[in-house]
Protein 1
Amino acid sequence: MDTIKSKTLTELMGKILDNSIEVVDLTQVLNEETPVISLPDPFVDTKGFSIEQISKYDENGPFFYWNNFTMGEHCGTHFDAPVHWVTGKNHQPVDQIPVKRLIGEAIVIDITEKCEIDPDYCLTIADIEAFEKKHGKIPSHSWVLIYSGWAKYGDDHEKFFNVGEDGQPHTPGTTVEAAKFLAYERDILGVGVETVGTDAGMAASFETPFPNHHFMHEANRYGLASLSNLDKLPPRGSILIATPLKIENGSGSPVRVLALVEK
């Protein structure tokens, strides 16, 4: 049995090395321009990313280069643990989440055309059912990734946040009904999005405010935000690996998200 397992893993590594399996990076670069969510008063915002050089082969350290950095847990491409939201406060913080639950099949639901027409467009149950009619039922232990096309605005903060004349951000998300459906009718790991947070820009005004946060974390499921390169993934069949930092009692973490895609 050990020999069979070893052969399976070495074959996987061989396919990665010969590029028959592509490793796609779904992560934004972290720098001082990385967009972070901005909350209305009286709420306190998370810190953005900042970096301070310690030494770079100089008098402070002639043989080595290193830096200090500061940032919030929910900065850039990041992972939301259930305890991030009040509905999930009795679930596990990020350091206690079983690592097996950080790996799953990526299910990519494409709503890009609808978001081009309406930046406030939210995934519906009808969208999910249309996907399943074409590609099969969303399997257990999978990540549902909502491909809105929003990652293309990552370097343009004005378009990325898309704040209208009403002072509100207008970005895609998930309807209350669809968020509840995914959380309770499908046995998924969680939901991933390209926007700054897992809910629509207008989600504070929904009947259940911030439904992805509310229902996903209530159901002990996770969130991934500020993803990129979703256009490089097929609707089904790729494997997603999310690697948050093991922050003790953390509500989330910056994360490097990788997908394995068989060519």
Protein 2
Amino acid sequence: MIKTAITQLLGIEYPVFQGGMAWIADGKLAAAVSEGGGLGIIAAGNAPADYVRSQIQIARTLTKKPIGVNIMLLSPFVDEVAKVVVEEKVEVVTTGAGNPSKHIKAWLEAGIKVIPVVASVAMAKLMTRLGASAVIAEGGESGGHVGELTTMVLVPQICDATHLPVIAAGGIADGRGVAAAFMLGAQGVQMGTRFLSANECTIHPVYKEKILKANDLCTMVTGKKLGHPVRSLRTQFARDYAKAEFGGMPDEELEKLGVGALRLAVQEGDNDKGCFLAGQIAAVVNREQPAAEIVKEVMEEAEPILLRAPQWVK
């Protein structure tokens, strides 16, 4: 079995993180991934602190293993959520969509492992100086908020820029992707889109069906005009948004157009008004299965590949 600095740091069986997908990654899904030996992560998204606390408590009733919370730093509730993870003694905090510098010291003092998502070498270096426990190098192939660099380009540069363990994210959904990430220098992976197919993932059946039937050209990126690009499935909503974005719609109206779109996809399966977040790797996801089985399967697929290059497995 493959052990790395990440499994040792967090006390988990497999170096596999489940991505913190807003409105999707709840306590039930996170607990299932953690029970399966990976690191389940609850998404705080734009949710208020009470919701995040309730999901942590749900996860605690389902597993005694480590769990994480992903804090979206653009959330209006970020300060309150930052305190909740301390009060609830969460083992790991991952962050996205911003700079977590303001909160890192308090989290570290509480014994929390802080693992920010980074999309550039500069951010990785800053997080290293501030005492982060590890970093997640996320390429633009991923679903949701994305950066400019691809995973293949970003991961080795981040590995060269920091002494911290690096978790690779973006475009990884099977053992081949895991092995590729390790060969680039990563010591763990984070998968989001693959876990949309988990039995424990409670997205609307329409959403799950779209993921299972996705092809290689199924996603597109919108939101660049506003400075917060997002990758999602190529639905009617995504096409309408892109048309408005490049058709000169004022920024304020564009902002309003996207409000609540993810919730409509996750909870109602609304093709016309819902934003179905997904990474480019969605085409590889073709069947529904338990979260624990996903974790084990990707590592079992990766192991024989990695054993050909044992110097990367530490």
Protein 3
Amino acid sequence: MNDYVIETKQVTKAYDSFLALDHVDLHVRRGRIYGLIGDNGAGKSTLLKLLAGLCFATEGEIRLFGKYTQKEQMHARRQMGCMIEQPGFFPNMTVEQTLKYYGIQKGVLDRKKADEMMELVGLEKKRKNKCGTLSLGQKQRLGLAIAMLGEPRLLILDEPVNGLDPSGMMELRSVFRRLNEERNITILLSSHILAELQQIATAYGFLAKGRLMEEISASALQEKCSDCIELSVSDPEAYAALFAKTFPKETYHVLAGKQIRISKPQADPEIYSKLAYENRIYIKGMQVIRMSLEDYYMELKERGAKPC
């Protein structure tokens, strides 16, 4: 049985000569919270729009719940809830009216469903407020509530915590976890707040310039982000050559700014500094650090990682 809720094969989206997406192979397993990471313009929103059926791929194949024909995907998308880019509302309609309106659009006739969704996202006290008066963060919450109408098995969310203060982020993080753990909803979300993603995602995909650089589980990322040592040296190329020869089983990367990063060091820091001293390479600084998700993403870009 195919365990992928979302699977793309060599998906490409071109606008004239511009490649917004370049042969992307994405894999989102059932039950995951998948964090899609990339700079502005990396292709995140374009990919999410393709999955939601808001635009069409230039080439490649998309499978949703294992389905790939146009007719099958129309039925599959009824099991999805989406919030992509800025959610749009009628400014003179109230929060409650908006949820009932979209409930009718989705064929949700249970009048209590609007109340349930407002409570879920923390908007029950704003039910009579007109949408035009809502803050950006409140609009994000309302967009999530609309996406949840119809009991979806899959949520696709583009920057869902945009505009939220820290307490609001914590509340939505708790909502995502409950939806995932209690209702078994698979969630694909993009965010530029990587520290927030790191607290809830169980898998990651890294996009850069329309290409998927890497997919990795949270547990594998945790392993890769273990303690490392960074050295700032006078001659990084010479030190790197010496390090590779002296410690052939260890992993290192040459970073910008004449820095060497040693991943999972197997020796005491003094051993690495001694190697430089004995070969007349000046060490300007040394520190033991633990990589964050932001660090890992930046290093991945600096390495110019090959696409998946």
